[in-house]
Design goal:
mainly alpha; 4 helices; 2 strands; elongated
Length: about 90
Amino acid sequence: AKAALNHLTAVLAAEEPHITALAFRPGIVDTDMQADIRTQGQGVMPPELYAKFLAYQREGRLQPPEVVARPLIAVALHAPHAWSGRFVAY
């Protein structure tokens, strides 16, 4: 799905020259999905993958949504048109 979104962004940039289309990777965000994985993932997903998600929180690697929202808003409002079609990672 993520690769498809990147390709869709490139197609939009090529076919709609009057818009600026970007794909944005926010990094590892502490969403409800992360909490669900930590509380419900054990026994449902491969142990090494479950351990990886637990480590994100334990190691302080999860970003609060409001922290990630700031650069996303800045990019959405001020990205140069030359970036259209690109993948932007935070």
